[in-house]
Amino acid sequence: MTNIEGKVAVVTGAGRGIGRAIAVELGRMGAKVALAARGVAGLEETANLIGNSASVISTDVRKKDEVHRLLDRVAATAGPIDILVNAAGIGVFGKVKDFSDEDYDAILDTNLRGIFLASRYVLPSMISRGKGDIVNIASIAGKVGTATRAVYCASKFGVIGFSQALAEEVREHGIRVSVICPGSTDSSFSQDPNREGKVRSKMLSPYDVAYAVRTIVTQEPNSFISEIILRPTQKP
Fold first, then answer.
1. Which residues belong to the active site?
2. Could you tell me the domains of the chain?
3. Residue 220 has pLDDT above 70, yes or no
């Protein structure tokens, strides 16, 4: 397995849930981790779990200028970015007939456009160096549509399609693009009506997703895991 000690990693959505768990795991493995999210307090809590190898950079992934500022700052202070994990995501749920334009824009801009902006910006450096890992966090909701989740599902279907297409574009340059599709996870999506009545102890832990990221980024250079579908052992 490849050692990632000293490599530079950026994790969006690192202030809580799955993003936090991924950042902590990469930090434990010796990576220099830049933590990005809108809320500074959550990022600082994550940084405290990692230690001195973590940096906190408040970022709204919906805004191109903030994404560019994040990635420029990391490259200037820590070095070229080796690992980009796009874990920022939000969920707003409800019937399409009742859905607002504002919620639609927020979901698509966070869950899909943010991945596009960050990936596009790191690619020139990765291509010039002939290596790099981009890991995008999608969802089982990107595989199967569910009532009251139409817009959320659309964003996650988009993440999967984007990841698959980008992987084909850049694999000749030694860059690996992977997507992870977790099932029910005990994270921060407490407002999802489809989670009502589910048993939290049977759900995935955010660290289950983090271990999947660890598997992806430690593959030897001549192989890559393009997609992981992760489900709880028992239906919650």
1. 152
2. 8-230 (3.40.50.720)
3. yes
